[in-house]
Amino acid sequence: MSSPKPKIVVLGAGVAGLTTALELARTGLYDVSVIGKYLPGDYDIEYTSPWAGANWMSFVKDDEQLKTYDRMTFEEFTRLVKEQPEAGIWSQKCIQYVREEDLEKTSLLGGLLDPRPWFADLTPNFKRLSKDELPQEYSRGISYDSFCINLQIYLPWLVSQLLKLGVSVRSRTVSHISEAFKSHASGVPVQAVINCTGLMASKLGGVMDEKVIPGRGQTVLVRNHAPAMYSVSGTSDADDEMTYIMSRPGGGTILGGCYQLGNWNGVPDPNMAQRIIKRCLQICPQLEDEGKLDIIKHNVGLRPSRIGGPRVEKEKFEDGWVVHNYGAGGAGYQSSYGMAAHVVQLVAEALL
After folding, report:
1. Of the given ranges (20-24, 49-53, 157-161, 179-183), which has the lowest mean pLDDT?
2. Could you read off the pLDDT of 165-196 as tens digits, one per residue?
3. 307 alpha-carbon distance from chain centroid
4. Domain 91-146+213-306: which topology?
5. Most buried of 118, 261, 266, 281, CB within 10 angstroms?
6. Taking residues 62-67, what's their average pLDDT?
7. Is-contact 323 192, C-beta < 8 A?
8. Is the pLDDT of residue 103 over 90?
9. CATH topology match: 7-51+152-211+307-351 vs 91-146+213-306
10. How many Cα neighbours within 13 Å face the side chain of 170?
């Protein structure tokens, strides 16, 4: 008679928690349950995943672990586009511009200025833009084929894949990590908890990670369509504001944005919204249909940023093992499968 599978609770039902649960369940080695204060379909400022732009645009330069996360995720997105188009991921050309005044900001530009960024051989049709391919105000640029995700499709799709594998996904609030050890759908205590609480890792009892801080992002969702994804190295409006455009499969385009560390304000700033729109139209005037934008809504999301980078490591608690997986900041989607694979490895080291 075979031994029962080790029981695991994944705490958090954002993209990190759902992806990690899926990768654990796919091994066939564990009995996995997911609990989260919020589930796909919910909207709250504490719940980051529904507000994201959600694409693959790596800004890693020298960190080999982060490169691995992004590489593995790109490879899985490639597979999903080909084999499971119902997931809501699509391939889209990505164009990145660098302003002359930003050339010294190498720490912020990742490998963008390298002759061959680390992802040049990973992304199809990579090229460095020539001078005549650049708008006049930019000094450098690259383009390549990447991915953008429709979250209203993708997050429920992740839940559907979990349900197919017999994984319970339930809404539950816990105030201390120890409560998760008693939250498996079977009612039986678990051997491991996967902490995918994102921004709430700063407030979760037993964790209380002071390095976790919000990276406020504000975007404008419009019905208009952009022919590609775009990003610019900086803006003249403010050091913490950004310019990016992401068209989603199934319709709608995200215009962004900002990255305001430590800012918990969930209310859209109308003046910033106007600046975002102005900047995006400068790099992509084709966005306007007959001279206007059809605005759906203004969004604010709080990226789960972490000083020093994401935390993916195991820790022994009195009740059992905790494997942490949080703090990806703006890379939550583009590193999701790579970080989940790392968790799978750490769980195997702890339990098998």
Report:
1. 49-53
2. 999 999 999 999 999 999 999 999 999 999 99
3. 17
4. D-Amino Acid Oxidase; Chain A, domain 2 (3.30.9)
5. 118
6. 95
7. yes
8. no
9. no
10. 14
Could you give the angle at the alpha carbon of 20 between the alpha carbons of 199 and 322, nearest 5°? 70
- Fold of the domain built from segment(s) 7-51+152-211+307-351: Rossmann fold (3.40.50)
Q: Which residues, other chains included, contact 111 with Cβ-Cβ below 8 Å and sequence gap of 6+?
A: 58, 60, 61, 117, 118, 119
Q: Is the pLDDT of residue 348 over 80?
A: yes
SS in 3 state form for the chain? CCCCCCEEEEECCCHHHHHHHHHHHHCCCCEEEEEECCCECECCCCCCHHHCCCECCCCCCCCHHHHHHHHHHHHHHHHHHHHCHHHCEEEEEEEEEEEHHHCCCHHHHCCCCCCCCCCCCCCCCCEECCHHHCCCCEEEEEEEEEEEECHHHHHHHHHHHHHHCCCEEEECCCCEHHHHCCCCCCCCCCCEEEECCHHHHHCCECCCCCCEEEEEEEEEEECCCCCCEEEECCCCCCCCEEEEEEECCCCCEEEEEECEECCCCCCCCHHHHHHHHHHHHHHCHHHCECCECCEEEEEEEEEEEECCCCEEEEEECCCCEEEEEECCHHHCCCCHHHHHHHHHHHHHHHHC
* CB of 189 closer than 8 Å to CB of 319: yes
pTM of the complete model: 0.96
Residue-level pLDDT at 115: 83
Q: Which two tokens stand for residue 179?
A: 């409560």
**What's the whole-number mean pLDDT along residues 41-56?**
94
- As a whole number of angstroms, the distance between CA 304 and CA 211 comes to 10
pLDDT surpasses 70 at 108: no
